[in-house]
Amino acid sequence: MNLRWFGTPVRFILPFSRLKQVRHALDFGNLYQLVNGSGDPNVNLEQGRLNPAYKQIAEIGAKYNWYNPWRLSDFVGIAECWHFEYWGPVAGGYASVHKSNT
User: Fold this and answer.
1) CB 25 within 8 A of CB 1
2) For residue 54, which of 74, 25, 83 has the smallest C-alpha distance?
3) For the sheet containing 66-67, what is the strand order?
4) Using CB atoms within 10 A as the burial measure, which of 12, 26, 68, 72 is most buried?
5) Model confidence over 19-57: pLDDT tens digits?
6) Domain ranges of the chain
7) Residue 83 — φ and ψ, nearest 5°?
């Protein structure tokens, strides 16, 4: 699914389930381009997280439970300043994922 946020191309990743959590993810094309797709933590900090576009997305996103996960910004392994995940409540409690026979 292709979305736009403030004119920015956004890739929506389908929900997946882990330990009774349903999570959604957004990849922001403008942030990806800022770092040329680099997973280098220093590049992601200097060219990504310190950029006003990242700060705006992170600030607004946090109001709606969207976060750039710490595991992608902790200077251990690969960094992805463009990747945000939804870590908020699911309507009606936790969602369960099951295989349909239809």
Assistant:
1) no
2) 83
3) 2-5, 8-18, 21-28, 83-86, 66-67
4) 68
5) 444 568 889 999 999 999 999 999 999 999 999 999 999
6) 2-86
7) -100, 120
